[in-house]
Amino acid sequence: MKRLIILIILGLTAALMPFSNTWADLYIIANKDLPVAQLNKEDIAAIYLLKKNQWENGDDIMPINLPAQADARNRFTAEIFDSTPEKLGSYWDKMLFKGETPPVTQNSEQAVILFVERIKGAIGYVETKPQSPQIKILQQFSSK
């Protein structure tokens, strides 16, 4: 009887837990003052591979990553590069050898949002739709 009660409690707990972030939308965000309204996947990939480093107005681009183990980073890497953060590691090994450093990493989505709010040329990605008037959404990828 005890086992049955424990199983019921575990089942109810699992049923009441929020769905996994793998079903969340992914938002590519930038500071509201950025003179760009939208970016496509190719532009985003070029920015995050540091192949494009200035906006059309001449301002420097500062791409922001989440930690490699973050669900949103895995989703971003799969969506933009059709890859994993681990596979992109070899690209960055080569770039480091050439003196290029990978994009800055922030520890949380909130940190990404705060950074993008304050830095005019910054671009980042989050799964939680930003509500800040200082942020614009450049692209949205819906869950599949």
SSE topology sketch:
Elements: H1 2-16, E1 26-31, H2 41-48, E2 62-65, H3 71-81, H4 85-97, E3 104-105, H5 109-118, E4 122-126, E5 135-141
Parallel strand pairs: 2-3, 2-4
Antiparallel strand pairs: 1-4, 1-5
General description of the model:
This protein has 5 helices and 5 strands; from the N terminus they run H-E-H-E-H-H-E-H-E-E. The protein has one domain (21-141): 3-Layer(aba) Sandwich (D-Maltodextrin-Binding Protein, domain 2), CATH 3.40.190. It has a 5-stranded mixed beta sheet with strand order 3-2-4-1-5. The longest helix has 15 residues, at 2-16. It has 144 residues and is α/β, with parallel strands linked by helices.
Number of strands: 5
- Rg over CA atoms, rounded to whole Å, is 18 Å
Per CATH, which architecture?
A: 3-Layer(aba) Sandwich
Report the sheet with the most strands, covering strand number, pairing sense and barrel closure: 5 strands, mixed
- The number of helical runs is 5
Widest sheet, order of strands: 3-2-4-1-5
Helix content: 25-40%
User: Tell me, what is the CATH class?
Assistant: Alpha Beta
Series of secondary-structure elements, N-terminal to C-terminal: HEHEHHEHEE
Q: Mind telling me the CATH superfamily name? A: Periplasmic binding protein-like II
Task: Estimate the global geometry from the Cα principal axes.
Answer: globular
Low-confidence stretches: 3-22
Class by SSE composition: alpha/beta
